[in-house]
Design brief:
The complex is a heterodimer of chains A (235) and B (94). Chain A has a two-stranded antiparallel ribbon with strand order 1-2. Chain A is 69% helix and 2% strand. With 235 residues, chain A is an all-alpha fold. Chain A has one domain. Chain B has a domain of 53 residues. Chain B is built from four helices and no strands. Chain B is flat. Chain B starts with a helix and ends with a helix. The chains are: A mainly alpha (235), B mainly alpha (94). Chains A and B meet through helix 6 and helix 9 of A and helix 3 of B.
Amino acid sequence: MLKRALAIISLLIIGYWLAQGLAGVPFGEDKMLVGQYYLDHVKEQTGAVNAVTAVVVNYRGFDTLGEVTVLFIASTGVGALLWRKKKKRTAKTEGSIVLTTGTTLLFPFVVLFGAYIFIHGHLTPGGGFPGGATIATAFLLLYMAFVQYEIPHRAFEKTEGAVGVAYVLVGLIGLVIGGYFLYDWIWQDWGFGADNIGRLLSGGFIPIIYTIIGLKVGTELSGIIDNMLKEEVSE
Amino acid sequence: MNCITCIEYIIVGVMIISAILAVEWRDLLAATVGMAAVSLFASLLFLILQAPDVAMTEAAIGAALSGAIFIFAIKRTQRFETEEEEKPGWWVRW
């Protein structure tokens, strides 16, 4: 009881302190200089219309690489924890007719929408992470609807590794050409799509990196679903 | 108060209720649904606050994927929380 009371009192003190600290910070006002800088210069510096993804991929590309690494480690951890010598799908009841029919009809469109989200990351809201998650939900639908379905493991693992290497390669090419890691050589040196801002073929390497991230997130989350669903079978 | 604000207040209220229910329900399957509902309403709130990209991520990951993964985990373990002894309700417990 004393412990609880102490916990509540300390929580109240910390909460009051945080509220006091945050009360002085104006919310939603233009006090941050760096945000205004991004909004003013995003078009000429990155060629992207969507400032959010320009910040995520171009200005803060290295952080995004770290984020992808975190996801990779999480997926590896799930795989390692649930590793068994022989795993199989043990589901017995087939999905209902609504689920199976809906899945076969919707699956291509869900994958198409996911691909749309990550390919148009520099134009419309979205990007690699939502796109990849959408693709993973498409595979989740397949897993739920069909008893026997499994993702094509070898293709998925190869894709995952290849796109992970490709991200670092894009960064290293930038290092060779421009002098720092993840330098956007497509936009800054070639000026590719400079007269095409606001259309698909612009934005420097943002579409390329977002395609990489989308494929990586999609394959990784599908792999996690596959790991969670399969169960060990005794031989 | 215009009506967008009332909708926001309603959504926040439903989020708090479903969060409390997600903690309190003994049936873990129902608790997972409560947790997914929190994510779903959070994504609606993000949409109202003009962050459509965050809303998409929240709906796909929070509501769909993590809910599904929790359900798979429940399927492998057990559906109900074990009750060794009768515990008092939340108003006394904390």
